[in-house]
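Minutes, project check-in

Agenda point 3 was the complex the collaborators sent over. CS summarized: two entities, 847 residues total, and the question is how they sit relative to each other. Sequences were read into the notes so everyone works from the same version.
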Amino acid sequence: MSNPVLILVAQRVALGLLLLLAVSVLIFTGTQLLPGDVAQAILGQSATPQALANIRESLGLNDPAHVRYFRWLSGILQGDLGTALTNGQDIATALSQRLRNTLFLAFWAAAISVPSAILLGLIAARYEGRWPDKLISGATLATISLPEFVVGYIVMFLLAVKFRWFASVSIIHPGMDFLERLNAIILPVIVLVLVVLAHMMRMTRATILNVMQSAYIETAEMKGLRPFTIVLLHAFPNAIAPVVNVVMLNLAYLVVGVVVVEVVFVYPGMGQYLVDHVAKRDLPVVQISGLIFASVYIGLNILADVISIMANPRLRHPK
Amino acid sequence: MNEELKYLLGLTAKRKFSRRAFLGRAATMGMSAAVANTMLAGAVRAEGPKKGGVLRLGLGGGAGTDTLDPALAAGHVPFHLTRQFGETLVNVTPSGEIEYRLAESIDSSSDASTWYFRIRKGVEFHHGKTLTAEDALKTLQRHSDKSSQSQAVGLMMDIVSMRADGDVVEIALSAPNADFAYLMAERMLVIQAGGGFGNPADGNGTGPYKVVEAAPGVRYLTEKFANYWDEGSGHFDQVETLVINDATARNSALQSGQVHMINGVDPKLVEFLGRSPGVQIKNVSGRGHYVFPMFCNTAPFDNNDLRMALKYAINRQEMVDKILRGFGSIGNDIPINASYPLFDHTIEQREYDPERAAFHYKASGHDGSLIVLHTSGVAFPGAVEASQLFQQSAVAAGIPLEIKREPGDGYWSDVWNVKPFVASFWAGRPVQDQMYSTAYLSNAPYNDTRFHNETFDSLIVQAKGEIDPAKRKSLYGEAARILRDEGGLICPMFNDFIDAHSDKVAGWQDNPNNEMMNGFAATKCWFA
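CS then shared the predicted structure for the full assembly.
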């Protein structure tokens, strides 16, 4: 009975892996098109031709592109991410630290924003056109319309500089315990929640309102059910699919798209790590970071698909 | 000074009276804030350093790609780290003299072509080894080796041979160089155990602090090295360096008390930051400058009249006022200013003169086609705006100057030193010879103006070997005049280093050599 679902999921995963392979080629080609190279970037303005040649030689930058691609891909498949060209750090160690930080921040931002967005969306739908709806919609639209760094600076100015409640620098390091970490990331979490809330909230509201037009809702109303019960138990299950898609999109954003917030709050996440290495043309790091970001996107989209399938009886039990 | 003020000064230096209140009291007695501040700094220094505490630095200019290898320490943050864990043979003092560090004395042959550095005894590396002349020798060899990746390779070109003899490192040069000792103050030439051949990024130096944690682009932690040789340096128990690349975030971190010192204060934000309580702005005019180099061998810039036209067509004062917000001084188309030793003050200052610009432009016979200036925000802070100002003032003189904005990414590899007319910057060097031989001699490694002038070359070489300071000064003056009137450099302004620290920090001394007291803020300051 669960076979059709399993097959669907397996298909999605296989497609995702194929897509990932294609993305790896794209990433590699893209990074080859960048002007300048790592030797130039390491030495900067004070590079001499001699020093440049020495670095290029020692890093093996003189091999043809396809040789380097397959060397890189086979390394990754064997779990060997290599070392950074610029400072010789083990990429796997440095990257896993940064990735953990990114996921930590994304998790807490999501844990707060997703339930509140859905709840606010349900409330807004329940009181459509009345003041709670207008208040919620207005406030969230305002926060989404401001660029992240503006929201960031405002929050920082008020909560860190003016009132000194929280730290303006969110650097976390292995020596900190869980509560210290949580305290350090409060400001970026606030900003991220404000940024992603509106999108998910408005999608929830719109789909629910759409479903509310259906005949079975009218039936529920005529049965005399309380309006919020109708919204939550009758309308929401049918709105899950579109809402899940938007939620996943925002979760992916929380993992891969928060470099601006990272810079403002000096948070040591993946975004800043990637940007640093792009600037220095440290391609092994750029490529693996790109690949991780792509996997996050693809993975979350597969998850969204699967949840949509599970939520839809017609897909769950195909004829 | 009256008795009351003297009394208050003593109290303030001991931190029993607030600095703000002292300045206010001094003002009511008719003393300007600048004078009162200087007086206070002197009194605090006289109190002597106090030991202990954890200093937190918020520094811009770090990246996840940084390394502790001094040979590759290009950005600001690696530079400050090398200052914490390592030391060079000598330092350059704020007034431009040589201060002996790991070298306890220096000698040279009478013609300044052979140099002898006597290595200090009783200095220990963090991993336990005792410093020897062999370590210094190996370090210099690593940086001068032809296959070296060090940025110092270019500086070491003149070295013919080196050897260690007991406590002395002997260095023979291919040509006399009266300033050779200054080269040994270069930040890359941190003396490492065994020369750093094994693991150059291990952070094993002789500096006042040893590296405890290093997370490039995020955070570094160093702590006082118990066996450090010099009582006068390294007053904190620990130094935590946080990498904060965003200027506004740095300001906030200082204002909210999360860090005690920051570098690179944005000129636009200085006034705002200076108003916050407990914060002191420290700006010092240095040798760094913002430039527009032209290739002297590429049309249309191969015509000296056209170069002169552009030099007269730039409004220097306007740039200092608008781009640097007054935190800097005007340039004179030479890479040298009054903060260099042996500067010739008699060189006439070039001003904005649209008429003379128009005259030279006409004399150049330029066909009227657009003259393209390549610029980008990464060339220097405010480079695009400065280029626009240049365009406006040039057009007012009838010169068809056009701006082409280039992407910041790849600017230093594809635009600077490649295109014939660009925006750029120089950090400056401790002595004139080093600046000229880095970029203006015919065979200079970074001759970004493609300037080839035999008279100029011979003057610089002659000055380099001249022992008599008065003669050297006049030789440098003559060379500077040639560069100013024939060279390809348009240098509109010298920028100040602007740092800031909290009132908790004492012992700050302005140093024109580089930002943050030439990187010694963490080793020479203390908690008041």
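Noted in discussion: Chain A has 16 helices and no strands.
Follow-up: revisit at the next meeting once the mutant set is ready.
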